[in-house]
Specification:
By secondary structure, the protein is α/β, with parallel strands linked by helices. 28% of the residues lie in helices and 20% in strands. The protein has two domains: 308 residues, 7-stranded beta/alpha barrel (Alpha-Beta Barrel); 64 residues, no CATH class. It is built from ten helices and 21 strands. The strands form six sheets. A six-stranded mixed β-sheet has the order 5-6-7-8-11-10. It has a four-stranded antiparallel β-sheet with strand order 1-17-21-20, with no helix packed on it. It has a four-stranded mixed β-sheet with strand order 15-16-18-19, with no helix packed on it. The protein is globular, with a radius of gyration of 21 Å. The mean pLDDT is 95. The structure holds zinc ion (ZN). Zinc ion binds next to loops. The site of zinc ion has 5 residues, from loops.
């Protein structure tokens, strides 16, 4: 019997701030936010938090919004550097003004030419290139439609898609529980939010396709796009008391990332892809106010305490995929050693931090797809009292 640990040691839960870039005014704000979140350099908001937080990108937008084709050469250089480092990890459609396959092809060719890869797709507003049929009204995966691009986009490397599904349930990949949504200081509104989430669960159990993801509360679901392409759809979470589409701004984050929510997430041992828009700000000179900075500092503190792993959307989705799909076998080996054999067909990076409980980590060895792991970490007993062996969880390097 073998049991993988759900998250890298010592973490008990994991969270990705999954921010759509809507209304980000310019590259200065985009860059300030990335630097504050991901480095410990001095910024307009104070010393950076040293977290690991990605961002989204789109291409064809009205001129007042930051987007790849709108910004200047320095902005495009910045975007490409952050894609290469893993800090821009999601498309956010191709933008409001991208209406044809040619718009999509132009963006993909540009990234390809620069050796940039993005593997996650997130639908945006009512963009024609969206992939979601019901909630997001997209045409991007309908063969023959003007905006059809999903064959190109999937061939480019996109394997994860978000098509509008958001839950209020704190923590996915654990049993669905509605406790924690209704909150005493906001009883009226939060009970309405609870009722809506309960309705989604009821509809899911009675066969609704729209809310099927809410039923088993998993982050990932195997689906096919309308052109038949197999992809993994993911569920995002916004546990704001008022509604799944409230508090999804920089300021609103302060009402979402609060200690009761984080306590619940850690206690349940869940994963959370947090739905927000960090570019919706009040003050360009200081994008995040004091309350938002305090909320983000709570995340940094939880990570420091070894409770909560904070990472990018792409890395969290890969971690979740490996937790679901990797096969683990424990076998006795020479000299009384215990051999942990991991078999996984996805990208190697998905196994970053992959950890397996063993009787004695000092007498265990770990191999991936038949090859001895060059570096392993041996962990003392965690909060469950069990020791483990695993692969290291390297941090992303922020571009200089
Ligand atoms: Zn959007």
């Amino acid at each position: 019997m073998s049991e993988p640990r759900p998250f890298p040691y010592p973490y008990r839960a994991a969270l990705a701030i999954c921010s759509d870039l809507d209304e980000t005014p310019d590259r200065h704000v985009y860059e300030q936010i990335a630097r504050y979140l991901n480095t410990t350099a001095d910024t307009a908001m104070g010393r950076g938090l040293g977290l690991e937080v990605g961002n989204t990108i789109y291409f064809d937008m009205p001129p007042d919004q930051f987007a790849y084709w709108n910004t200047d050469d320095a902005g495009r250089e910045l975007v490409r550097a952050l894609i290469r480092s893993g800090h821009i990890d999601c498309f956010h459609s191709f933008g409001d003004l991208a209406t044809t396959r040619a718009h999509a092809a132009r963006a993909l060719d540009e990234l390809d030419r620069h050796g940039c890869r993005i593997e996650v797709w997130i639908d945006h507003a009512r963009a024609a290139t969206n992939l979601g049929a019901d909630i997001m009204c997209g045409q991007g995966d309908v063969p023959g439609a003007d905006a059809y691009h999903s064959d190109l986009t999937v061939a480019f490397g996109v394997g994860y898609v978000w098509r509008g599904r958001v839950t209020s349930v704190v923590g996915q990949d654990v049993r669905r529980r509605l406790a924690g949504i209704a909150r005493r200081p906001h009883l009226g509104a939060s009970v309405r939010t609870l009722a809506k989430e309960a309705a989604k669960g009821f509809l899911a159990r009675t066969g609704s396709v729209k809310y099927a993801m809410h039923r088993d509360n998993a982050v990932l679901h195997d689906v096919r796009l309308r052109d038949g392409s197999p992809v993994r759809e993911f569920l995002r979470c916004n546990p704001h008391w008022a509604a799944v589409d409230e508090g999804e701004t920089a300021e609103g984050l302060a009402e979402v990332v609060v200690d009761p929510m984080l306590d619940t997430l850690v206690r349940r041992g869940g994963a959370c892809v947090l739905y927000t828009h960090l570019g919706k700000i009040e003050d360009r000179s200081r994008p995040f106010g004091a309350a938002t900075c305090a909320a983000l500092a709570r995340l940094a503190e939880r990570q420091q305490r070894g409770e909560l792993l904070v990472t990018t959307t792409r890395r969290l989705l890969g971690q979740r995929r490996a937790a679901r799909e990797a096969q683990v076998r424990l076998a006795p080996a020479d000299g009384g050693l215990q051999q942990v054999a991991v078999a996984y067909s996805g990208p190697t990076a998905d196994l970053d931090g992959f950890t397996v409980y063993v009787a004695d980590p000092d007498r265990a060895a770990l191999a991936v797809n038949g090859v001895a792991a060059p570096r392993v970490v041996r962990n003392p007993p965690d909060h469950t009292g069990r020791a483990s062996i695993g692969l290291p969880w390297p941090r992303l390097g922020y571009p200089a």
